[in-house]
Batch of 2 targets.
Target 1
Amino acid sequence: MHHHTDGPAAPAASAPAAPADSTAADVAAALEAAAGAAPALADLLPRERADLLRRVADAVDADTDALVGLAAEETHLPEARLRGEVGRTTFQLRRFAAVLDEGAYLEAVVDTADPAWPVGPRPDLRRVLEPLGPVVVFGASNFPFAFSVLGGDTASALAAGCPVVVKAHPGHPRLSARTGAIADRALRAAGAPEGTFALLFGEEAGRLAVTHPAARAVGFTGSIRGGRALHDLAAARPEPIPFYGELGSVNPVFVTRAAAEARAAEILSGFAGSFTLGAGQFCTKPGLLFLPASVSLEPLVDAVRASAPAALLNERVAAGFGGGVAALTGHPATTVLVEGTVDGDGAASAGWAPTLAATTVTDLLAHADVLMEECFGPAALVVSYADESELLPVAEALPGQLTATVHAEDTPQERPFAAALTARLRDRAGRLLWNGWPTGVSVTDAMHHGGPYPASTSALHTSVGATAIRRFLRPVTYQDMPHHLLPPALRDDNPLGIPRRVDGAAEPA
Amino acid sequence: MHHHTDGPAAPAASAPAAPADSTAADVAAALEAAAGAAPALADLLPRERADLLRRVADAVDADTDALVGLAAEETHLPEARLRGEVGRTTFQLRRFAAVLDEGAYLEAVVDTADPAWPVGPRPDLRRVLEPLGPVVVFGASNFPFAFSVLGGDTASALAAGCPVVVKAHPGHPRLSARTGAIADRALRAAGAPEGTFALLFGEEAGRLAVTHPAARAVGFTGSIRGGRALHDLAAARPEPIPFYGELGSVNPVFVTRAAAEARAAEILSGFAGSFTLGAGQFCTKPGLLFLPASVSLEPLVDAVRASAPAALLNERVAAGFGGGVAALTGHPATTVLVEGTVDGDGAASAGWAPTLAATTVTDLLAHADVLMEECFGPAALVVSYADESELLPVAEALPGQLTATVHAEDTPQERPFAAALTARLRDRAGRLLWNGWPTGVSVTDAMHHGGPYPASTSALHTSVGATAIRRFLRPVTYQDMPHHLLPPALRDDNPLGIPRRVDGAAEPA
């Protein structure tokens, strides 16, 4: 990274003072209140919790202007992007309300007594998913709404019926405090149990929350280093709890020779747009582009040079990016194609121009520890290959990824290679894209946002989409239980009107 | 424990020499072969894997006599019980074949492209569950068939499409070897990929398998101490993997005053039968019976005294049980009601008579570290209470349980208390029973065999029942992928004929 000035990154003059760090007593009070709220929150009917979520979404909508103003100050993200993100956040809250209304998420299964069951008389057995209990959520820096205080982790945990204790990200403390106050007020007004929601500040408070006996699960989006440390704390507890961490990903993009021949210009311009979008501050930023060595990189270099410098989220991201780019561009196995620059004093709020470097497949594999590492910000690495067959071993050697992308031609000639490449990538990534770009994670039923470690600490779960709720639910089976002690989801008359499996088949509506 | 002789438990004269411990090279070869088999096994159609499971089940059925003979020698379990367990084991294999045939387990979701999607144009997104990769399974001692080499963990992992490396339990090495050979032969004959199944022996081999880079998940049934050590190894790997351990449980039974007044004799006799069944060697053995102090224990004492002595599984179980009973009966807060005895030299194969002790709720809570600990074998503790209200705090203080049972009268007078007690127990246990006994775990869709730690290391998952397969599957989403590169489950024409969710609703059949 070539700074226009040589001094260390200084905090922006307008940086607000962060709310004071929460004390150990604050953490204990929040978790104990959450434990106290858990039974009543679990006992609400799904449609009652759906109402809570909609009330929270309405309250966020009503405060959009002030929230966006604060977010812009604290994160340097442009207003249009922030407004869009507020919309995504309230959409998520309302989507989980719809999930509750539908009720399929409860996975209700009824097996009535069967004296003729092949392995011995079967009692009446009824299974439903119930909330785990208090969930600790760590807000992310790069989505100050959609992955923060009222982001997907909080929405899915509340939907599941779990009280939530959020540890605010230090990148947007005032926004976090305001969002938390909105949530708290809306939940109280809607009659949620006391203790349903709390907000904590400070790293030590986060660690204390993860290790507090009342915590039953953790949701996290952030760095590999920070996430792994918290994962290890959660696993080492006297009673280990699930830690759902979405950590790091380089989101490789593979371009076949035929695709490069057919439409190199389009691919190179799409790549430049995707890796510099939002100043490269997305978990799904494509950090590696595999290209035939014969492709001219000039159009890509021109596009990157023409890309407008943009601010970074905060000083911590700026410092991390500076270090990552230095490691990338200073590595003997890379060539710098575009040297990123930063205006002025190198503060996060300055204009950061993107960086582009190049290497070969052989060098990438030989120096994977540095060159396959996520560099969070506007930087990417072009990896050239002489022969397409080089791509298969590199696909197998990838660490776990959120996404992997193939650009190829859909022709009979390409199919065998595309199939071989895709087969390897599906083992290494949570989402596979064809002729597209990984940035932009649509919130839909079919979305999976996760992947093998380190993309996620639990490859079985997603942090985006309807099934994110399952992270915070556990099955309970009731055996020969009288009707009045069964949860409504399991009663004979199906008072919730939800889809159920009864005696091995879908229950007729 | 009062032994008729004072010497240490000696190995039975007929104890077979265990197969040699697997070497580090054996472990590496098994896991590497499993990794090699994984893509081909994953690519089989569900009905092709169903065929593999049925072929394995047929092969087990065909060898039942020899298997039961070996099992009886090695585990001292009665033949009728072992024959029943073989039936349960092949039933499980065939049930997972049926799960594959139905295909709902794939959770296929198709969201077609939607330019009008509220948070921005939605690409074509299709999600399906795919196998995690090689699974390491630790066989249990107490179900030498149903939770061992070809038990539920192996059946569900193979069904999911994951190669399996089993670490044999040292309690039945020759049976494990024979079962493993049957599996290997049947899988090869059915055309399963080379490396689909392997069998290892020895504790160190088990640890090496859990930490081998190719292992993607672990299934385990056994002790808290052993399971926790392996859990910690799995969590501390450079790439952590899920560890599904079913560990320990005391399976408390709560008897209300009204139930005791109405049918003490029936309850006491049922309890004696349940905790001595199979010499108390079940994960679901009820170890604690909460009773009003006013109930006469004489019928219980008589029933326990009349219970026939039985052999224990192996010398390790005998030694552990001896220690556990000594801690229980020697504890200052307990009174011995029936002192268990053991015939002869105290070998596992000798006759072990059951032990019954008593304490109070107050003492149980004060000495929970010893008195709430599982004592694996024919021993139980009666916990007397003066007032039913004492039961609520003790229900809250329980460690995580596989089961919790309430004996109460289904009358308007009882309902409020039964509801309060059940509400607390559902947070602490995976299965709640009413007026029944927890031993006997029916294999059905609605069964949940798991619970909060230490009952299980993952409260979200079960080791029995159809949903056990989900432990070994992870979601993958395909974005804008050409038809020929999609897995069959996600193609437009639904060639597998499975239930799917398409654009937010069940796809018409």
Note: Confidence is low (pLDDT under 50) at residues 1-16 of chain B.
Target 2
Amino acid sequence: MTAEQARALDAADPLAFARDRFSLPERLIYLDGNSLGALPAAAPAALAATVEQQWGEDLIASWNKHAWIDWPATVAAKLAPIVGAEPGELLVADSTTVCLFKLLAAAARARPGKRKIVTQKASFPTDLYAAQGVCDMLDLELREVSPDEVMGEIDELTAVVSLTHVDYKSAAVYDMRAVNDAAHVAGAFVLWDLCHSAGAIEVDLDGTGSDLAVGCGYKYLNGGPGAPAFMYVAERLQEALTNPLQGWMGHAEPFAFVDDYRPVSGINRFLTGTPPILAMAALAAGIDTFDRIGMADVEAKSRRLSQLFVDEVEGRCGSEVRLASPRDPAERGSHVVFAHAESYAVMQALIARGVVGDFRAPDLMRFGFTPLYTRYADVVRAAEILGAILESHEWDQPRFRTRAKVT
Amino acid sequence: MTAEQARALDAADPLAFARDRFSLPERLIYLDGNSLGALPAAAPAALAATVEQQWGEDLIASWNKHAWIDWPATVAAKLAPIVGAEPGELLVADSTTVCLFKLLAAAARARPGKRKIVTQKASFPTDLYAAQGVCDMLDLELREVSPDEVMGEIDELTAVVSLTHVDYKSAAVYDMRAVNDAAHVAGAFVLWDLCHSAGAIEVDLDGTGSDLAVGCGYKYLNGGPGAPAFMYVAERLQEALTNPLQGWMGHAEPFAFVDDYRPVSGINRFLTGTPPILAMAALAAGIDTFDRIGMADVEAKSRRLSQLFVDEVEGRCGSEVRLASPRDPAERGSHVVFAHAESYAVMQALIARGVVGDFRAPDLMRFGFTPLYTRYADVVRAAEILGAILESHEWDQPRFRTRAKVT
């Protein structure tokens, strides 16, 4: 595709307007919004108001005056149309990993006769580490199997099935309804990690009969570095599950200051400590970048962007790279990975040329397509630059081989 | 004391300069920094730079370029002189409650033969709820006893003693060294909650032979609403304890993306999820308000402020209020509480007059003295207004009796 053809696609793009909701450096083609979402244009002022007016002027009164105490639920409620849930099923809190621990432990403890957690090996490491920690603490068995073995592993001994909806490397997508149905037949819960789904593709938690989910605030939701995570607990399960990380914010009467823990009814029982107000102000601005945008449109553009990239890269780079994501766009999330023996150095060369993706060990280049701000012209240009780098071997320099602390 | 005498004390106060490190509304006498610290003057610009330059311009590269990945340790290191610890013994992460869970569970699991956790009843509720949760999960017994029973309760069955150093209501202070020594003789760990100590009075974690501590970022440390908490793990214990909330940030090689959890050496093993960068930018500005200020000076001023308040209130209000904090300033933290049957309404009347303290159920008015920005003149004026409110009974109005959601 020519640059001109790509610009014509951008001109006809019904989501083109959304790019103005972000502050993006003009010099960059940023294809790493799946790792850290871009800065929403409204975030600096939103954060400054929270800091200077609310914290600075109204101080402690802000817990009531600005309803800070309700933000974990009210900010989360903005996610309802993005993940297909009711507002009362969502909560913003903690980090993704802490939320994983909470819901894994809560679910496992609600199935005391079942001692097995099923998950996928080579899943995102923190998901595995959290599950290993829960199993160690509760004396459960963790079964880490390959994706095609998951369904066969779900049986009457299974308490929880814990899966990442969209794989952080390959972008392969699980069939949420199929896994939920199989787990429910076996009497197990399913915990979905939506880190690479929420804000990227259509997710219908309620419609697929989901039980539990967690997700990331700082990727497609644009909530800022280390933004709080979100949790989903289906309404029908909220009274049956208890939060293992008990704290005052999950208490029925947090300001009665009584000695005995008594969980509040509803989703707030999964709160623990004092809500991170400043971080939530940024996250709210991030989620608001989806305001009046349907996830069907987001998913459709996501698929077009990623498929265009696959076509352009394969057309320009031939067998130099190997697609390591599912070939069928319907089986992918919103990113694609290509394998190359020198992926680390090639990615550094790309970044030096202003095309920002990331490297994932051992040999993958990952490119994320964020339909709210990625343009078709960016995709074509990125593929063109990748082709040029591979052809010229400009990646073959010591400076591109020096591994940074964070990759 | 007259207002003029109080102003003379302020003029001679060696810490008077520190008030300029804060943005405080002129109309308020803010005696609630023990609940939410005031806005540091440098915080808005620090946060804006993190948001606009680091997140907005440098995006994902900031994890290396601005060393975001190291912030949990580097921001925590600023606390070393404030709490009497080595930098490598401190970490910023999560909320206080989540940190309590982590360290309680870690300590209890390192004493598998001992099944008892000793704590104080009527301690801050979240401490009790977290301990109840840990005991429930690990099948331990929680003994909640009165302060004078704590030492007698520590025995060879005790795995952990978990205490709040300065009581959130009365401000009574435990003798850290005495508790540590008694616990160590019995083979138990001690976990100190420093929420009402850190930044308020002198704390010497290393010097008193402490094992573990957690503390709050948003009270005396001025880190902003819901700021991340901090943890202390004595260096000698770091390899012996394991973090029950396993996640990628505590892994020896977080970016190797391997399936099996292997904790890193040192304090970072107590990390779990992705660090909350925006919140930490504010917290760093908060801790920096203590730059080049010794905690001995802070404690000395704290004691003078609180004693002046006690004297002034008792002189003006007589038997209308009852001091519910220790009478000896050396036995108190940096706040004082007075009991009054109508404390809630009286506190609302005070707030309406611009004197901000808080109410603590059932009948306490709590006043916090933050030596970095509270003036002697504020203390005298606050006591004067309290006296006037009690004398005039202006608190006796329905609008002051309506309980807010957050008290």
Note: The longest helix of chain A spans residues 295-317.
